[in-house]
Input
Amino acid sequence: MSRVYNFSAGPSALPEAVLEKAAKEMVEYPGAGMSVMEMSHRSKEYEAIIYGAIANVRKLMNISDDYEVMFVQGGASSLFAMVPLNLMSDGGEADYVNTGAWSDKAIKEAKKFGKVNVIASSKEDNYTWYPELTADMITPKAEYLHITSNNTIYGTKVGTLPKINVPIIADMSSNIMSEVVNVNEYGMIYAGAQKNLGPAGVVLVIIRKDLLGKARSICPTMFDFKIHADNGSMYNTPPTYGIYVAGLVFEWLLEKGGIEAQQAENYAKADLLYGYIEESTMYSSPVKKENRSIMNIPFVIGDEELEKKFVKEAKAAGLVNLAGHRSVGGMRASIYNAMPLAGVQVLVDFMKKFEADNK
Ligand SMILES: Cc1ncc(COP(=O)(O)O)c(C=O)c1O
Output
């Protein structure tokens, strides 16, 4: 069986060139005489790998020295607790925007640690749009504003960020490095790796240095951002192999021309798919036009049997993981950085044929 086009929401497709390089170096990393998996994280070879990866994140996202860049563990879900434990003072409060299941989880977790103000939500419309965020919405005592910049399940993304004095904390798990962002607009960005960056388990954290050192006294050591920053992401044994593969992804992105080049490709992919959905009389998008994600694209036929048939026949044609999330149904194509334009073209061609055959 040859490789398929994998439209999974995550873990998702990795660039083939990255997998091939990892395979080539799997048994013996050049000059080390062993696999990266077998290396001490304190070795010179591994230090070069992890700090090389961090340096490339800085280069790709144009991150200034005002920010710390590090890797932590426990998935993006651990950050739902780490953020309030580090950034919401005892008895303090924070503002959250509810734009989907992941925001909802972040809100539930933060409520364990203090007052959470849900300042905007699209829940009543099954998260099919993204609220416009303006400075006057912010609670005067809020210590930060938490947003999910891209909603993996519903296929929406945030618009313009409000100009506010409180730090904006973004869960960027499903759209990090998909387009150029101005890191300076954020207090902190975090992202689980398993969509655009690498294997699951690794979490990338970019945090403004003045936000470090504010963790509550009850904050577990492993949840304290300053501990990870002070120890160069190696307070304990980091997920060494996952970080190595993420490092290969960063090199691949740089070789392609960085995030600007990737952004152009991503918009071409999204335009191709949305363009056809708009044109078709069979498929439609449930997402408000102005709020559409370029990474996760849900679409429906409106007939459950036909949708099941679509997913089944697509799979047989080598287009896999196209079923929508179990909470929304329909279909969803996740077209992260590793999905080539050619893959989206094959999907659109399949959709056209399916439409013609099932009219
Ligand atoms: C936007 C977003 N946030 C958080 C998560 C949770 O990530 P993890 O499974 O790494 O905890 C996901 C997972 O899909 C996600 O899409």
